Amino acid sequence: MTRLVAEEDAIPSDWRTTTPGAVIWILFSIIGIPIRALFSAIFYIPSSLRPSKQWTHDQALRTWLMRTVFGIITDIGWMQSMSLKPGKLGRRWVVIKPASPKAYQGPLSHDVVKPQRIGATWYPEPPPRRHGERGLEEGGNWNEPQGLVALYFHGGSFMWLSGRPDDSGFAADLLNTRLGPGACSLWVQYRLSGDKNDPTPWPGPFQDALTSYLYLTNELRVPPHRIVVGGDSSGGTLAIGLVRYLVEVGQPTPKACLLFSPSVDTTFEADSRDVDRHRNQKTDYIEGRMAAWGYRVFTPPPLHLDGPYLSPSLHPFPTRTAIFVQSGGAEVILDTNIEFVESFRRVSGKQGYTLGASGRAP
């Protein structure tokens, strides 16, 4: 049965989420991890005992470790807090103000959750501006041959990560390299539903996605055909949601949308039982209870999960923006990613929709 609302009891709330319970549990886990790691290292020597027979010994151990760490995070209900301070980023850090309230229409308009200032990190550097002008340097005209600008939304179940170098630096550098000479990217620190100081549920992160896009097009005057939007996991939800919104309001859409293991069917991912019953559960490092927790704070009941922005796989739409989807063949969201591509191909034709999947990747 399709889940229409988030699980009421998905938020961790037992003794391990309080003080000193969390401290005790962390210490207990730290002591136990080396012992369990040694056992797992021995247990996974035969390839037949690994989560996938195709995996290397190192791959099996790494997946076990990530699953264990994420399990501890869920046990104690750990949540991150965001800051708009640049830290060591200097001029690479930018604080973006919301656009005019009129820009946030329909699903992005909310009585309580309003657009706010957000932060973002440039990789490798912010594009230079002409002195005394709002346009960019390098000729000042983005219609001339230049590198692409990527607008990227990190993953993290709407609860963790920031797009800063500590958690996104390697991926950002890799993305720029793949986009070709002269490419740069802006990684958005959108508001988190699990922020300890300022929890922001739906539609806050979607508002932030639009805020960052309008910053590029209106303030920096980057033409949409030079922009590539992208995201992984929950960030993928924001990326394709941004494209949908631009189509709906009749605004120019970006050149392409890159989705890496995107969350595209919340009716599945928010159901802990469905996630844990999936055939790929043993080869993924995300448990059902963790996914359900993320959606419980992002989409609290009675908000329905089957809407077009939360479950885009169920609501394909035609767009001229080319869409690329990459998914791990060992992930629990593989099926929904395939369904997403197939559904979009049906409404727009096969051209422009690409799916890449690796059978060994968790």
Over all CA atoms, what is the radius of gyration?
21 Å
Approximate strand percentage: 5-15%
Count every beta strand, where a strand is a DSSP E run of 2 or more residues: 8
Instruction: Let me know the largest β-sheet.
Output: 8 strands, mixed
Helix content: 25-40%
Number of domains: 2
Q: Compute the average pLDDT.
A: 92
CATH homologous superfamily of the largest domain, by name? Answer: Alpha/Beta hydrolase fold, catalytic domain
* SSE series: HHEEEHEHEHEHHHEHE
**Can you identify the CATH class of the largest domain?**
Alpha Beta
Give the neighbour order of strands across the main sheet: 1-2-4-3-5-6-7-8
Named at the architecture level, the CATH assignment of the largest domain is 3-Layer(aba) Sandwich
Number of helices: 9
Envelope shape:
globular
Structural class: alpha/beta
Indicate the low-confidence ranges by residue numbers: 130-145
Distance between the termini: 26 Å
Write down the CATH topology of the largest domain: Rossmann fold
